[in-house]
């Protein structure tokens, strides 16, 4: 945007109003999500219920399980030069100076932050320590008033942080995130090192598991043979949609047991560029779900349906007990649930 005035012109309202509106939207979304989770938190399914659910499914409603992959990986993070590291920290220190002299933190976040919350002024909503990167959390929970932290390094890059509010064991902060950029030379070094490693594995001079344990930078996979775990399901199976685009492209061309050439990818935690070689362990072609191979997917489907029914009943009960006023502006909207307008 270039300036605070440009931000105001873009949104056609003052910075203070933009911040207030965005804060309210985030607060409403958090409250809604927390309430829904509370309503359905005790809903569970048993194996016998899942089996009965599957037996009662009409043939045409049995879900099709998309193609799934199991793979192991060796990951290298290219080194960041000291000069690039210092450049980013100096930029953040300069932004901190400008903010302390009166420039809006939120406006600076919109203009300069590389984080996903940049477009709402860097605000991330109320978070507990466990929900935040440890270094970010340590800095955020030590802030008082509207003071701004010194430059903080996390797994995502470098931040400056401002405290907005504190509620019990949670804080609401805004931040500006900047990440050092990887040089072409560092990328080439990582690719060459992985290429040599892949050739050693193919020749049988080292196993993939041993190479992962010795050389991989990925702390989540290096100690279990490089096996990737799906964070959504906690299994080792991934659909194409659950994979980084580059990984899915590579796996789709491989044979079981094959070692890939090096390629660039994105680390799922830090969202930073990394380089990988992968080994395809198994490929499970698309098929109709069955209890033997797809129990967890069927259990998740049944649990979602069961939770939805509980939520719908709760809403229906509250509608009957609560005064509801719908502004005329929204009277003709297609509501997800009926009986809002009486």
Automatic annotation (TrEMBL):
<dbReference type="GO" id="GO:0003755">
    <property type="term" value="F:peptidyl-prolyl cis-trans isomerase activity"/>
</dbReference>
<feature type="domain" description="PpiC">
    <location>
        <begin position="168"/>
        <end position="265"/>
    </location>
</feature>
<protein>
    <submittedName>
        <fullName>Peptidylprolyl isomerase</fullName>
    </submittedName>
</protein>
<feature type="domain" description="PpiC">
    <location>
        <begin position="66"/>
        <end position="165"/>
    </location>
</feature>
<dbReference type="InterPro" id="IPR046357">
    <property type="entry name" value="PPIase_dom_sf"/>
</dbReference>
<dbReference type="InterPro" id="IPR050280">
    <property type="entry name" value="OMP_Chaperone_SurA"/>
</dbReference>
<keyword id="KW-0697">Rotamase</keyword>
<keyword id="KW-0413">Isomerase</keyword>
<dbReference type="InterPro" id="IPR000297">
    <property type="entry name" value="PPIase_PpiC"/>
</dbReference>
<dbReference type="InterPro" id="IPR027304">
    <property type="entry name" value="Trigger_fact/SurA_dom_sf"/>
</dbReference>
<keyword id="KW-0732">Signal</keyword>
<dbReference type="Pfam" id="PF00639">
    <property type="entry name" value="Rotamase"/>
</dbReference>
């Amino acid at each position: 945007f270039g300036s605070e005035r440009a931000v105001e012109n873009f949104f056609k309202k003052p910075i203070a109003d933009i911040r207030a509106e965005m804060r309210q939207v985030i607060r409403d979304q958090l409250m809604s999500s927390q309430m829904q989770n509370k309503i359905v938190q005790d809903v569970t399914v048993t194996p016998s219920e899942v089996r009965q659910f599957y037996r009662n499914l009409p043939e045409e409603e049995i879900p099709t399980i998309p193609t799934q992959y199991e793979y192991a990986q060796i990951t290298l993070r290219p080194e960041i030069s000291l000069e690039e590291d210092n450049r980013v920290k100096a930029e953040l220190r300069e932004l901190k100076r400008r903010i302390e002299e009166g420039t809006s933190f939120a406006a600076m976040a919109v203009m300069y932050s590389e984080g996903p919350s940049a477009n709402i002024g860097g605000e991330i909503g109320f978070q507990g320590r466990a929900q935040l990167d440890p270094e970010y959390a340590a800095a955020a929970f030590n802030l008082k008033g509207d003071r701004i932290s010194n430059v903080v390094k996390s797994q995502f890059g470098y931040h400056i942080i401002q405290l907005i509010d504190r509620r019990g064991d949670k804080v609401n902060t805004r931040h500006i995130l900047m990440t050092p950029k990887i040089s072409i030379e560092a990328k080439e070094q990582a690719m060459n090192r992985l290429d040599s490693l892949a050739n050693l594995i193919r020749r049988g001079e080292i196993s993939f598991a041993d190479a992962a344990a010795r050389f991989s930078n990925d702390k989540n996979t290096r100690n279990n043979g490089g096996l990737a775990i799906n964070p959504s399901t906690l299994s080792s199976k991934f659909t194409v949609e659950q994979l980084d685009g580059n990984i899915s492209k590579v796996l789709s061309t491989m044979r079981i047991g094959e070692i890939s050439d090096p390629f660039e990818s994105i680390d799922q935690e830090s969202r930073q560029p990394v380089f990988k070689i992968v080994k395809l362990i198994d490929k499970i072609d698309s098929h109709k779900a069955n209890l033997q191979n797809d129990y967890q997917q069927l259990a998740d489907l049944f649990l979602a349906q069961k939770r939805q029914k509980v939520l719908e009943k709760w809403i229906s009960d509250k509608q009957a007990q609560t005064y509801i006023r719908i502004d005329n502006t929204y009277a003709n909207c297609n509501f997800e649930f009926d009986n809002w307008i009486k």
